[in-house]
Amino acid sequence: MSYVIDGQELHEIIGFPGAPWPLDDLRKNAFNQALELLHLICGVSYYKAGLAQVIDSDRARIDTTTADFLNELYVRGLGEFAYLNNLDISSLCRFVTNIDDTSTALNLDLPERALVAMGGGKDSLVCLQMLTDAGVEVQPACVGGSDLIAETVNAAGLPLVRMNRQLSPLLAEMNAQGAWNGHVPVTAINSAVLVCAGLLYGFRYIVFANELSANEATLKDSRGREVNHQYSKSLAFETAFREVIRHRVSPDLEYFSLLRPFGELAITKRFTAMTQFHRVFSSCNRNFHLDGPRTETRWCKDCPKCRFAALALAPFMSPRQLELIQGADLLDEDEQLQGFKALCGLDEDKPFECVGSIAESRAAMKFLATRAEWKNRKIIKALADKPEVSQAGALALQPDAVAEHCIPPAILARIDAF
User: Fold this and answer.
1) Residue 264, SS3 per DSSP
2) CA distance 310 to 301
3) Which domains are present in the chain?
4) Smallest Cα–Cα separation from 116: which of 106, 129, 104?
5) Which pLDDT score is estimated for 190?
6) Tens digits of per-residue pLDDT, 274-316?
7) Residue 416 burial (CB count, 10 A)
8) Cβ 416 vs Cβ 404: under 8 Å
9) What are the distances in angstroms from CA 400 to CA 260, 275, 363, 366?
């Protein structure tokens, strides 16, 4: 895939190892539509480098549905980047239509099996286990070369399909020279990669493990607009992406999150029974970068993800069990206090990370203050009496029966957890 910034051409490569080229014309045409959509979505990584005032996309077919989707994705998906750099890109980023708004979607005969996105953490493992228990034929998949993800899938006794993504090396050079840089909606990119993979390898269901708390905004900016680090994991993105897939690619391809009705604590409770994964998983994002891990162990033990994992796991484990997983007792370290306060929304904003909701963090903190083995930990003692914590609700350990989701009825009917 190629992009041009101020006359400089950048090339990105995405590989689908061993993927058979579609033999029938319908699947081939649908794949080409999905590939074009992938090209447009991946462009967000390059757009942010220069924040071009003109996006020339004449070589791609963009109707109203696609333009609306891309404008929303680029603006909201780059919301954190814009906020931290004190930028307003809402009026700057604009895709324009160049074809009539007519559907190009094709009816396909796709096998009733699921390509499941794996991230190396507890959520995707719970998702995989739920589908397996329901008798759905599954294939774990990921984008990138993480050994940790491979280890978790190996512990599940399943093979892993791994797509390769190579960003243009010129992008790193531009960043080193002072180009704009920051968070991009990676889950949107990975979602588009897996949609293409589903068409090549033959899967009707493209399944992610994005949960209820991903819908919560990280903060609001000075103009009252929500900024969500997890936008591309949110229901808003999921529904918009499903619509553009149905419009451009095929109504027979089902992209959805299986865990949308679940909060983080409900997922974690289920994960604690999956002991075969406790020593191989990690929720620390420093393990997962295209250029390799940035920590020598599974847990860096000093980031919002590590802290939230400790807070979510603790209600269902003893301190010793949790320390065996993370290699430390973060809830008993004074230097972690500010980080836990941020998770609970006390005196500062929720961190820009994929962590549970503020309400979940407060509920977990309140619950731990009632447990003999946890209540004397330094962090618990420091925060338990805060009104926001002491008045928090109970742990939400069941899926939200009224939460909006996109799970196909055929899958929903087979999942006992609902």
Assistant:
1) helix
2) 9
3) 2-99+109-261+402-412 (3.40.50), 264-390 (no CATH)
4) 129
5) 98
6) 999 999 999 997 765 556 555 678 899 999 999 999 999 999 9
7) 7
8) no
9) 9, 25, 16, 21
